[in-house]
Amino acid sequence: MTTLAAPRGRRFRPARALLYLVMLFVCAVSLFPFFWMVVTSLKPDADIFTRTPRFLPVEPIVSRYTALFDGSVPRQFLNSLIVAGATTVITGVIALLAGYALARFHIPLRRHLLIVILSIQMLPQTVLVIPLFVALRTTGLLGTYQGLVLSHLALTVGLATYMLRSFYLDIPEELEEAAMVDGASRFTAARLVVFPLVWPGLAASSIYGFITSWNELMFSATYMQQSERETLPVALQQYFSSYYSDWGGVMAASVIFTVPVVIFFLLVQKRLMRGMVAGAVKG
């Protein structure tokens, strides 16, 4: 009597099952803080500090969210969106052009220039606060959107440029040379041939610039002295005082604070994943 073997695609594979379990565990660990943040924002204060935590609130408190939209949070949300959006666009443009120049042109002391660019990223943020404060005050940009965007560029442009340079190094120069042989200028060849191939790197640097600017607190708290222009990270400090901390309000505001980052990541996730893997090949 012969037995039929199970179809090849339906065989039970312990290694694959273990891989799925590990992936499920990693996803659960990664998403649990966001889940707990949402749940805590809906709990009464008594349930937040109880010794026997409840995963789901019995009577959700939605008034915290309505209070946010009735206050100054919409304006602060718009401020953060303006600053983070402008920082992301300018970072992408500068990194796109500077990365191309560092990858294609024979610039004197190019290696040393790359070291300087990366060394700026290694500086503690506190070291940059006073020099940037003096520069912004001298130029009259203190307390303006433009001044805050310029200060955020000091945190994003260096690493974004280095990331995009790595992508340019992965693209053969023969593609540009073939276009220039057909009569295209270098800029036209770069615009039509090279730039479309570097979109994954641009997506990776864009999400980095957006998250860095969106979460930045120190520069925003120091330079945005006008309350109508303060950003959301600065606004979150109003929930803390010397004697009391409104953790429910903090969690509700943090949920609103996290939504744009999640949406932006979902929009560029495919290009971002491809970009992060491909960009790590060459340095």
Automatic annotation (TrEMBL):
Q: Any stretches that span the bilayer, and where are they?
A: 17-39, 77-101, 113-136, 148-168, 189-211, 247-268
Where is each ABC transmembrane type-1 domain found? 77-268
Q: Which SUPFAM superfamilies match?
A: MetI-like (SSF161098)
Keywords, ordered alphabetically:
Cell membrane, Membrane, Transmembrane, Transmembrane helix, Transport
Q: How does it sit in the membrane?
A: Multi-pass membrane protein
Compartments reported by the entry: Cell membrane
Which InterPro entries does this entry report, sorted A to Z? BP-dep_ABC_trans_perm, MetI-like, MetI-like_sf
Annotated CDD domains: TM_PBP2
One Pfam family, short name? BPD_transp_1
Family membership: Belongs to the binding-protein-dependent transport system permease family.
Designated name of the protein: Carbohydrate ABC transporter permease
Taxonomic lineage per UniProt? Answer: Bacteria, Bacillati, Actinomycetota, Actinomycetes, Streptosporangiales
